[in-house]
Structure formats: structure tokens, C-alpha cells
Protein: Ankyrin repeat domain-containing protein
Amino acid sequence: MTNPSNLSGFKVLVLVSPYTGCRVTPIDKGFVDPCSGEFFNDFGHTPQTDKFLPSLNHRVKGAELEIILSDLKLELVENCEQIKDWQGIKDIAYRSNENELIYVLSCGDIIWGISSEVGFTITHLLSGMGSLDLISKSGSKNVDLNTLSHNGETPLSIAVKMKKKVSIDYLIEHGAVTSEICNSDFCSPSFEELIDQFYPEYEIED
Structure:
């Protein structure tokens, strides 16, 4: 296991969520957790689920950082049998290794059926990475590009919040719904609303 004392305190503060152990990506109006799809505002709070990113005083404590990182494997996946559940996907997301992800996505349909406790799927994860090589894998598998997580996130909403233009353009071109999508508890805002709030500089190519 990685010794937290060897890590840059600032990087851990900004990039690691204690709820999923994944890197949290800073955006203009807060942070997005790519493993759960949850958005945290500038204060590190997500009003929908009332979660908080830990405070500075808590995050710099070695013991707590050790807990955050203790269940994350840092070794690259070498065979498909290593990926059995969302924890395995979370490990890969933490490492952010594109070549490793391309390998894992070739492991078969079972990979595409894995989701987190809140319904966050592989397609959500790939949308937030902004790589055409990766997001196009979703299209080639004919997966639902409009799948809605339990907390109201679609692959398109993740792509917008993380400002991944490549993913946005691909998803829209291949059938992502741009109107509001709802489940029994949450709604994902329309594409126009998401752009206005999170990515106003986005420009649609002619």
C-alpha cells in the first residue's frame, strides 16, 4: 500500500474522495467524482446527498489518508479475471491509465454490466475521461448512452461537468438525449442547462 506520507498533501486534498477513493476532478464550480458522478460545490458539499469532502485539518492526517487509500490497488490489471466488481473499476479510475482501460474494456460483456451502488456505469466513467478511443468503446458495444444513475447523472451530464468536449460531441452524435431525463428520485437537467451552468465556453462545431 502506498504510504500517505510519500504523497503530496495538496494532491490528496484535491483529488481523492473519501467516499469512493477516486480522484476528484476540479471544475469551475466545484469538483466531480468520476467514480460516482457526484458533484461537490466549491465548499466540498453535495446538497442532494449531504456529503462533504473532508476538511483540510482532517485530510492531512496520515491515518485518515491511509484509510482512504487502503483498498485501492496500485498494480496494473494484467488479466480480465482481476476485474470482478466496481472496486476493480474504481482501482483503474484511480490510476487513470488509458492503455489499461482499453485492455479491460476488451474483456467481454461482463465488464459493461458492472455498476456502482448508485448506478454509475462504465459509460459514465469513460465519458468523464474525454478520450475518443475510450468513449467510442461504449458506442461499439451498443450500450445505453442515456443510462441514468440513482443520483441523476447521465454520461452526458458527466462529460459536461468535467468539460470533456470529445465525449460531449461523441455522445450527442450517437444519440444522447439532450432534454431533461428523470428517474423516481432525481433528474438530470437538459443539455442546455448543464452547458449554461458548467461549461458556458463550449461551442458546437458546424
In short: The beta strands are 25-27, 30-32, 39-41, 45-46, 51-52, 181-182, 187-188. The two ends are 49 Å apart (CA to CA). The mean pLDDT is 74. Residues 4-69 form one domain.
